[in-house]
Design goal:
The chain is an all-alpha fold and 275 residues long. The protein is built from twelve helices and two strands, in the order ααααααααααββαα. A two-stranded antiparallel sheet has the order 1-2.
Length: 275
């Protein structure tokens, strides 16, 4: 069974713990486990299913039952707080605290994935490496980015991409793209992606002054629609985005990297009730 430090959901750990103990001991059951903890068996099942959270008053008993060390107990408690967190600020605080725990002999890939989305130029550099023969001349990539970033930041980005197995060196000493990429879905990933989206939206605003009109296309439109049409609007945006991706895949000899932001958000809502 994996270490508690390899989990980002304490309920998945408890489920794996239960199944591991069940295989080892024939007497092990929901009733046995809940009895040792002092928790209702039905409630325990719902915790393992991810439907409920472990109440505060049972945390110490659970840690003792799992025979956690002091460090494992601290991680488990932080993990519970992370999984219970509702606001973006709370999620960020608890996730970064989780990342401060080091798993012996193992680097936490989630930490690197989280960092990947923190800076807009990480994705830009990865895309550049896909169209530009790059070895270790970080100054060249630094000058290509708009706005430019320092050579030190480019070097750090390259090191991160290597750790994530998103780029690798070929036999000639040049970096090439690998198939690995960062997936999304968990709460920490959604948080990191929001950071990335904020960064690129900020860059879109700055582009109005930074780039000539012929090199950009920034337009806005305000429309009045019924809320029931929102799914259709999102579908149209998805189809448009897919068409752009297909065009990019078929583009011959690409020589630049663009960021496309499609932004749809409410500015007024007549259905909001007065307080």
């Amino acid at each position: 069974m994996q270490s508690i430090f390899d989990y980002l959901d304490y309920r998945l750990f408890l489920l794996d713990f239960y199944e591991t103990q069940k295989k080892k001991h024939s007497f092990f059951s929901y009733r046995y486990m809940s009895g040792k903890i002092g928790l209702d068996a039905g409630y325990l099942v719902k915790i393992l299913q991810g439907k409920l959270h472990l109440p505060e008053k049972y945390i110490n008993t659970m840690c003792s039952f799992c025979k956690f060390s002091e460090k494992e107990t601290a991680y488990f408690r932080t993990l519970i707080n992370f999984n219970k967190a509702k606001s973006e600020a709370q999620i960020r605080i608890h996730f970064e605290k989780l990342m401060s725990f080091s798993s012996p002999g193992k680097q936490r890939i989630e930490k690197f994935q989280y960092e990947f989305y923190r800076k807009w130029y990480y994705t830009a550099i990865r895309s550049l490496i896909g169209i530009y023969r790059f070895s270790d001349d970080v100054e060249s990539l630094s000058c290509m980015l708009t706005p430019p970033v320092s050579s030190r930041e480019v070097k750090k980005a390259v090191e991160l991409l290597v750790k994530l197995d998103m780029i690798k060196k070929d036999g000639d000493g040049y970096y090439t793209l690998s198939n690995a990429f960062v997936t999304t879905g968990e709460s920490w990933q959604s948080l990191a992606i929001r950071d990335f989206q904020r960064e690129t939206i900020r860059l879109a605003g700055e582009s109005l002054d930074r780039h000539h009109k012929k090199d950009r296309d920034i337009s806005t439109v305000s429309v009045a629609v019924n809320k029931k049409d929102l799914p259709e609007l999102k579908l149209r945006i998805t189809e448009f985005r897919d068409a752009i991706l297909k065009l990019a895949e078929n583009s011959d000899d690409p020589d630049c990297v663009y960021q496309l932001n499609v932004q749809l958000f409410p500015m007024a809502d007549t259905t909001v009730e007065k307080s």
